[in-house]
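User: Design a sequence. Structure:
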């Protein structure tokens, strides 16, 4: 990814570009970040660090499955107490679904 998580407010939290037949969408925040030990699990069904009444842990699972359905990829870079960047890569020309 190589953008690095910002420490100051970002005036442009969503950036798009294209490269090698893919559209790249970067979504960035400067919130509390995701703990390193959780990064490998955030796309697992029902994984959550919140109390049960505040979420069931399906949001990122659903996002990941939708992106995979369209032959795309999603990556995450996060620094605790600094923020997170999600990068979505989607093919410009989709293969047969």
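Assistant: Done.
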């Amino acid at each position: 990814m190589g953008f690095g998580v910002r420490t100051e407010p970002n005036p442009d939290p969503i950036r798009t570009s294209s490269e090698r037949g893919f559209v790249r969408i970067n979504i960035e925040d400067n919130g509390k970040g995701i703990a390193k030990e959780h990064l490998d699990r955030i796309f697992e069904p029902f994984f959550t660090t919140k109390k049960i009444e505040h979420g069931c842990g399906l949001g990122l699972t659903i996002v990941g499955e939708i992106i995979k359905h369209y032959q795309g990829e999603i990556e995450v870079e996060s620094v605790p107490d600094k923020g997170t960047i999600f990068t979505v890569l989607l093919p410009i020309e989709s293969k047969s679904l």
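The mean pLDDT is 88. The two ends are 27 Å apart (CA to CA).
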